[in-house]
Structure formats: structure tokens, C-alpha cells
Amino acid sequence: MSSDPSTVAIACQGGGSHTAFTAGVLSRLLRDSTLERERDVEITAFSGTSGGAVCALLAWYGREHPAHEPDDLLTDYWSELAASGPLDRTVNRTVRVASRLERMGVPLLEVSPYQSPAALWGRREFLRLLEEHVDFDVIPDLLDGGEPALLISAIDVLTGEFELFREDDLSPEAILASAAIPYAFQAVEVDGSYYWDGLFSKNPPVKDFVTNREIPDADEIWIVKINPERRERVPKSVDGIADRRNELSGNKSLNAEVSFVEHVNEWIAAGYLPEKFTHTEVERIALDRPDLGWRTKLERSPEFVERLYADGEAAAEEFLDER
């Protein structure tokens, strides 16, 4: 390893089940620590939103905990998340059927997550699975000041303000707050405030890598991107319009964050900023599956999850080869 490695921050965009792709990317990047040991890379931070928050947490925790590896944690988590048991398969099939009926224009009963047993079950299962893979009680013992930063995004329901949960205040509820889709989960209480899914705010946090002076400046930011940026044709079907609307919404905050970093780079090049500010290159590792609509973000069949995970591993391998 060289004496002056490239510093890298990794940002994970949220996107429901599609973030199995993100898990595959991180699994390959962090496997056996070869990224940092053999490729002259030092990871300075992870960030994530929604499903990307879970992936970022597992990657960070597996890297810092002496008894775990990111690759194993990510693989095990997503294998268990896949709907393999009888109850899980029934729930997954019910979601698919309901989505299909809604697409056909069949009116369905709308139930608030505050009145839905399914929402309570979903919350309980989310927390159970998370705590099964991450021992939050030991996290304070892992913090010695030399670990990468971890930034988890959520939004305060009442004030509309962004919230970034850091590695020193992590809890299962903080991760759920970032993943709490309003129509599927009750607002999540953390320290007296109530939060919804971070897709409304920073998806994922990016500009904080260059504005937060507690985080070492990154030479590069690698964004694991779920939502497609461009489409070839204007959508005209109801499904196509809904898909594109979801993609644009998911990319809006990300593009604003990246635009800020690019402006800072321009100010640095023009000499407007002190020398302590350094140029940051932004790279993307993107999911290339134009056939996937937004409704498949709720799909959890083992075959679907495994395919996206493998796609992520392949995309990361290609990224590293080209780099």
C-alpha cells in the first residue's frame, strides 16, 4: 500500500428491495479488506438512506467489529430478508397481487399504518432482523476515533428538518427512521422527535462529506446508485409515468447534493477557497436494470434478491477493473 492512499467516501442511495444491488456492491468492494490493502484506498466515511442506510450500517459494522466481515453480514442479512418462509412468501405474494390490482385500477381499501396489524408486524420484523445482525450495545466500544464516519439520513416529520444520525448515536430505531416509508410504517420516535424515510431528505447524504469538518476530506465519493438518471422515451402508460416519477423523486436530492460538490470543485479550481479544501471526484456505481419498475422495490422473492445482489457484485468488479 502506498504512503498516500486515495481517501474514499461511499454513499448508498435508497430504493427498497433494489438495494440488494447495493449490498452486492459493498460486499465485493469490502471483501477480505482487499480494497484498502491492495488498491491504495482509505475509506473515510459511509452514508446511506432507507435500504441504503441498512447496507451502509452493515458495511461499517462488519468493517469495525473484529468478529465480523462486511461480506458475510451483507450476504446473511439479504438472504434472510428474502421471502423464503411460508408466511414471508404469503406476504410477498399478497403485496404483488395488491400492486397488480392497483395497476389495473381496482380500488383497494387504504389503511393507516397506525391501524394496520401488517405495519406493526413489519416494524417488529425489521427491528428483529437488524438486531440479529448488529449488536448495537457494543458499538460505543468500537469507536476510537479512527473509524470511518457513518451518516444515516432521515427527516423530522413535524419540522421538515434533515437529521443525520452518526455512528456515536446509532440505534435500531435510527435505522428504521431512515427506512420508515410513511404509508407502511408509523413515524419513528427517536429522542422525542418523529421521523420518516430519508428519501424525503438526503438520498443519500453526499455534500456532508465535504462540509463536515469532522470527516477527513475525501479524494473521491463513490455513489451506489439505484434510480436510473435517464430514459430514452417519455413514458405514456400509467405504470411508466409512475416509474419515472419515482425515479425523479429519488434522484432529486442526490443531484442537488452532487451539484453542491461540483460547485465546490469549481470554487477550488478558481482559487476562491482556502488550501485546506481539496478537489473531490464523484464516481457512480449504478444499477443498470431498465426493466425494473418502482413496484418491484417491494419484491422480496429469493430469486429476485439474489439476482440483484449478483448484479451488484458484478458492477463493483467492473468498476474496480476500470478504475
Account of the protein in words:
This protein is α/β, with parallel strands linked by helices and 323 residues long. The protein is 45% helix and 15% strand. The protein contains eleven helices and eight strands. Strands 1, 2, 3, 4, 5, 6, 7 and 8 form an eight-stranded mixed beta sheet that branches. Helix 1 runs antiparallel to helix 4 and helix 1 packs across helix 11 (302-322). The chain starts with 5 loop residues before the first strand and ends with a helix. Mean pLDDT is 85; it is low at 85-108.
Task: Give a quick set of tags describing it.
single chain, 323 residues, alpha/beta, Cytosolic phospholipase A2 catalytic domain, 8-stranded mixed beta sheet, globular, lipid degradation
Largest sheet: 8 strands, mixed
CATH architecture annotation: 3-Layer(aba) Sandwich
Provide the CATH topology.
Cytosolic phospholipase A2 catalytic domain
Describe the global form: globular
Structural class: alpha/beta
InterPro entries: Acyl_Trfase/lysoPLipase (IPR016035), NTE (IPR050301), PNPLA_dom (IPR002641)
Keywords: Hydrolase, Lipid degradation, Lipid metabolism
GO molecular function, one term: hydrolase activity
Protein name: Alpha/beta hydrolase
Secondary structure elements and pairings:
Blueprint: E1 6-12, H1 20-30, H2 34-38, E2 41-49, H3 51-64, H4 70-81, H5 86-103, H6 117-133, H7 139-142, E3 149-156, E4 162-165, H8 172-179, E5 188-190, E6 193-196, H9 208-211, E7 220-225, H10 238-269, E8 281-286, H11 302-322
Parallel strand pairs: 1-2, 1-7, 2-3, 7-8
Antiparallel strand pairs: 3-4, 3-6, 5-6
Helix pairs in contact: 1-3, 1-4, 1-11, 3-4
